[in-house]
Amino acid sequence: MSLPKSISSEIPYGEIENFEDIDTRVLAIDCIFANIIGINENTVEWCSNEDPPSKDEYLAWLWVIRPSLGKKIQLECSEELSKLINAYDSKKMEKWFEYIAT
Q1: Which residues of 40-51 are buried (b: 16+ CB within 10 A; e: fewer)?
Q2: How far is Cα 35 from Cα 47, in angstroms, rounded to an integer?
Q3: What's the pLDDT at 1?
Q4: What is the 3-state secondary structure (H, E, C) of the chain?
Q5: Nearest Cα to Cα of residue 62 among 100, 21, 25
Q6: Global pTM value
Q7: Given a cut of 90, is residue 4 above it in pLDDT?
Q8: 49, 39, 36: which is closest to 16 by C-alpha?
Q9: Is the pLDDT of residue 98 over 80?
Q10: Around Cβ 70, how many Cβ atoms within 10 Å?
Q11: CA-to-CA separations, 21 to 31, 41, 91, in angstroms, rounded
């Protein structure tokens, strides 16, 4: 399975994987790409900072809504985003937040 080439910029809560962890993923992505993810009443929305969106912004959005694609995303993303995905998958987000704050 390859990564989708495009995906909607607004996704209903019910279509987001691991929705119970969405706050952690959004907060972490916000540390890398400020304010690209918005939480609405029933949806999560991607608002790219760039026009056209950078590849890493797109991959970050894809990971927020489909964290199960993390390993495939890592094949194409920046080192910074890859470190985040590794931390999330290994349940070491506290250490990642400490790292990104320095």
Answers
A1: eeebbebeeeee
A2: 8
A3: 59
A4: CCCCCCCCCEEEHHHCCCHHHHHHHHHHHHHHCCCCEEECCCEEEECCCCCCCCHHHHHHHHHHHCHHHHHHHHCCCCHHHHHHHHHHHCCCHHHHHHHHHC
A5: 25
A6: 0.93
A7: no
A8: 39
A9: yes
A10: 19
A11: 16, 17, 11
- Going by pLDDT thresholds of 50, 70 and 90, the confidence category of residue 87 is very high
Q: What is the pLDDT of residue 3?
A: 84
Q: Tell me which residue has tokens 């790409």.
A: 33
Instruction: For residue 82, give the amino acid letter.
Output: S
Task: Give the residue among 76, 6, 37, 55 at the shortest CA–CA distance from 85.
Answer: 76
Per the document, the length of the chain is 102
Summarised one tens digit per residue, pLDDT across range 16-30 is 999 999 999 999 999
